[in-house]
Amino acid sequence: MSSINERRFRLSRNIERKLLPDGTLLMKQTVRGEYLALRPDQQVLLDTFSGGPTVQEILQVQLLQKGHLKIRAFYDLVINALDKGFLVEGDAEPATTPATSYRWRVRWGATSAIGLSVAMILAGASALWSMPITLVHSWADWLTVLLFMMLALSLSNALAGCVLSGFGRLVSGVRVRVGWGIPFFAVNTSDAFMGGRLCEICVALQALATPFVVALGAMVWDSPSGLLAGWITVLMVGSPFGNTPAHRVLHAWCRKDYQLPRCAEKFMRSRMVSQLFKWNDSLREETYFLVYSTYAILWLGAAFRFASQLFDLQQMHMIQDWLRLDKPGAFWGPLAEFLAFVLLVGAPVVYLGLVLIRGLHRVAAARWFTAENSLDRKQAGGTRPSGGDILKFLQNTPLFSQLLAADLSQVANAMNYVRVHPGGWIIRENELGESLFVILGGKVEVLKENEAGEPRCVATLGRGDVFGEIALLDHVPRTASSRAVETTDLLTLSKADFERVLVSALGAAPIKSAVQVSAFLKRNPLFADWHPQPLIKLSNEFSFAEYKSGEVVIRENQPNDSFFLVYEGEFHVRKSGESRAILRAGDFCGEISLLRDTPATADVIAARTGRCLKLSKASFMRLVSQDFLTGLVIETTAETRMRERHAA
Questions:
Q1: Domain 2-89 belongs in CATH node 3.90.930.60
Q2: Is the backbone of residue 88 left (phi > 0), alpha (psi -120 to 50) or beta?
Q3: What is the DSSP letter of 398?
Q4: First to last CA, the chain
Q5: What confidence score (pLDDT) does residue 274 get?
Q6: Using 50, 70 and 90 to split pLDDT, how confident is the model at 113?
């Protein structure tokens, strides 16, 4: 990040903007054809890039704003905008050849697109349903099928371009492409993103509906080859898998997040079955996932029915060809044909079976086949350190440093040693927890699944880090997965030994309190991007202080020796008897007198019963000196408050 921090970016001049009624801002990089969807807070942030301040300077100012982005989200947005060409460096725009775009002369809007598409689908579906499927055999008939499919896919793209032009958007990428092994006329309709959801739905719906017209035409012309081509093409564009018109319709219609990736297929493969066992757990994109999964199952059923009909039509013909062995090599043709149809019929069943098996295994593994239970069986190598080395190591680990020597010795003796090879799973999310882990050496990545079931790395742990205690203390499933990045040596403490030795020595409350404090600090913007280990260490230095309504926390013009972080409740800030501010959960006070080594500049009084996290002066000074960004934010806030109080 250091190289990015020192650079000065500005917004490109080649940007088109469109503000949606819900406040979402759509942006298009007109030269590169890239897109962004921004929330209001992200819009304000990007607008601050003027080419003057560095990225780090913008971040520092941004951290002082109420409701600012987290540091990780800040860098994600900056890097994404930079990669897509929305942010540029210097006065000159990067030399890029703009994509050639068109606006069809033949065009129609939303009402016509929806009406025409629905009519096409109903008429074509009626034709497909009423006419029996006839399997073709000659090369001429198969060539006719291919030509009908090329026509259907080409018309699908062309008419989608007409709808896109009707919304005032541009068609690009006009070319002949090969998809599904078939050459056809294709266009890029991604500019529908700038037209809004309705535009996306109408464009994709028109592309989906057009092959139905080919089926209708085949019925009118009494063409078995055309009808077969219509069936195949409808299944192709109606497939929920991949960037198909059907998936684009579902995605545009059901998603909540405007720039959500098309991830429902991943959800179906990874989480659909297990989510049925947790039906009371709501998901933000639940509608998108459930509608997609339902449609995908129906589509697989339709594909199975179609393939079964073809197989029924062909099986007698295949058997006859198989028995006709009067020519050399006649055996292999019918056999290959038979196997191809078996695969065609079996593919939907196999896919659904794999989804079901994977989902049930995921549910069962969380209880009976956990990753940590298999560690001892799967991992090998390494030598267990001596008891003295383990004892010395634990003395420098924050969670165990509070133990008396005798208790620490018991913990060291109860620890087991295991070596995990790169890529080895230590714990998996949602599994029942049976052990606490301490990293003796190596590196571990912490992964948390998003709603679709895609694992994302949220932290990296190293020597001395402790993980796995939350599940043991709160008796809840694992909240994240952990996997070895490199060869990693671990010390493990079983749940029974954890409760017998550690909880009995420290008590569940102090351990839980430390965890509670670290969780609260993690939610605070000051500490949101801290590494877990220093966060736990810092949480051990905080103590809870309770205040009743009207009780003074800091008194004006009196010495103050603590930094306060509001945990719950409300606290009034008063100077010379006049109310200046109200502090709520997450706000802090006391920093001015500590940084300036002066008496307090204002009263802080509890408005109602509340609690604060209290940090001693020595710990506070270590905090601001050790972490640059946190110290800078606290110092800048103190200076701002001083200016406001002097101005008042």
A1: yes
A2: beta
A3: T
A4: 39
A5: 82
A6: very high
Q: Is 133 helix (H, G, I), strand (E, B) or coil?
A: coil
Q: Does domain 372-507 have CATH number 2.60.120.10?
A: yes
Bridge partner list, 447: 457, 481
The DSSP bridge partners found for residue 589 are: 564
Strands of 462-590, DSSP E = 466-467, 481-484, 488-494, 543-547, 552-554, 562-568, 571-575, 578-583, 588-589
Would you say 407 and 501 are in contact if contact means Cβ atoms under 8 Å apart?
A: yes
Phi, psi of 87 (to 5 degrees): -110, 135
pLDDT of residue 1: 46
* CB distance 231 to 136 below 8 Å: no
Q: Note if the pTM is more than 0.85.
A: no
Return the bridge partners of 615, or none: 563
374: Cβ contacts below 8 Å, ≥ 6 apart: none
What is the SS3 assignment for 176-197? EEEECCEEEEEEECHHHHHHCH
Roughly what angle, to the nearest 10 degrees, separates helices 40-47 and 71-83?
A: 70
Contact partners, residue 125, CB within 8 Å, separation at least 6: 212
What is the number of other CB atoms lying within 10 angstroms of the CB of residue 526?
A: 19
Helix (H) or strand (E) holding 291: helix 286-323
Contact indicator for 345, 303 with CB cutoff of 8 Å: no
What Rg do the C-alpha atoms of the chain give, in angstroms?
Answer: 32
| pLDDT tens digits, 465-512 | 778 877 776 677 887 889 999 999 999 888 888 777 766 656 655 666
Summarised one tens digit per residue, pLDDT across range 520-575 is 776 677 776 676 557 777 887 888 899 998 999 999 999 999 999 998 888 999 98
Q: CATH number for the 542-647 domain, one of 3.40.50.300, 2.60.120.10, 3.10.280.10, 3.60.20.10?
A: 2.60.120.10
**Residue 155 · residue 213 · CB < 8 Å:** yes
* 551: Cα separation from own chain's centroid: 45
16 beta partners: 28
Contact between residue 262 and residue 247 where contact means Cβ atoms under 8 Å apart? yes
Alpha carbons 204 and 117: distance in angstroms, whole number = 10
